[in-house]
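does this look right to u?? S-adenosylmethionine version
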Amino acid sequence: MYKISELAKQVGMSRTALLYYEKQQLISGQRLENGYRIYTHKDVQRVRLIQQLLAGGLTLKECKACLETKLDRGILKNRLDALDREIEQKQSSRNLLAALLGEGELKTWHEKLNKVAPDIHTDWLINQGFEEKEALRLKWLSKDMNEHDKYMDDFMRVFQGLARWGPGSEEDTLKALRHVPKPIRKILEIGCGKGQSTRVLAQNCQAHITAIDNEQSALDAVSEAFASINKTDRLTTNCISMTDLDYPRAYFDLIWSEGSAYIMGVENALRRWRPLLVKSGTLVFSDLVWQTDTPSDKSITFWQKEYPDMQTVSERRNQIQNIGFKLVSDFPLSTKAAENYYEPLRKRVKALNTNSLSVKAYDDIEHEIDIYTRYANEFGYHMFMLQKL
Ligand SMILES: C[S@@+](CC[C@H](N)C(=O)[O-])C[C@H]1O[C@@H](n2cnc3c(N)ncnc32)[C@H](O)[C@@H]1O
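got this back:
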């Protein structure tokens, strides 16, 4: 038998709270002749059960119904689902704190943070002392601060040996170019890589091209290619970041970005690049999109890690309109565009991957090629041609 103060001590609650429970008929003490209420061990158990149910998200009224076995199963099921979601979020938060303390698995953490808060993720990496270029590479490629330098050395060893750094073809570039009103005087190409499309643009219009990339070795390759076709006077290269373009407003007739806008987020890129275009100027970009509304679990799992912001074509079309562009046209890149990229990449990794020891960067590239090969009908690159409104 417990007095109310003893019951309060047993269950770690205040006397006032227990009196409220009493008033709500959640517990019911036996009144003694001297006016005191006394409680049994069963009341202790009832209060403990109520505490657990409250922690599970039930209201006092629902707790009462539960104790009287009158609670609707549907309500309990909803609470259970909400609790599961809460636990999942808490687990995520726990992983985040553990990773910040240097515990736990970093790759998963980077993938998670990149999905939930991509811009904060980049800022956080920059605050850790990474240059923006390396922060972006860490976010998209190595996803591991401890292994980053080795990962990037291996990764660049693969790509330095390749002419094309993303899916694309001369035919697709020309097809998109046909939608651009002429004359074109000034083009800004963003994330030009080694200049596969830069060369096609130069050979098919008279514009001056400012080609930017944050990888100087790629820009050197573009300059060399332009020298070999005697078009050096039509090219300016700038080794700068696409996130910080310091050109005059309303300066370029055309902005071209094949497979690079995703790096700073497509929506963000379109918003930030738009002011650089002249009135009614054109922006052409290609991006990886879902080609089905029902992709397989394998593709979803892979792309949620590698490109969490991947959208369907109709989702991208909506975004484009909301940002102040008119969609002129769009089309899926040809199968040849994907082959132009994946085939040489496959051969290059195979040629380099001769050691029996596993190399993370090679494994990741091979994994992407494998996903592309097996699920190619579920996603692919898509070209969008927009006009500034
Ligand atoms: C997928 S590749 C596409 C290259 C090229 N457009 C092509 O199709 O071959 C992306 C390019 O963006 C460049 N890049 C990455 N981050 C960048 C940044 N912050 N600013 C400018 N270029 C960047 C990379 O160096 C690379 O050349």
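Residues 2-67 form a domain with the Multidrug-efflux Transporter Regulator; Chain: A; Domain 2 fold (CATH 1.10.1660.10). idk if thats expected tbh
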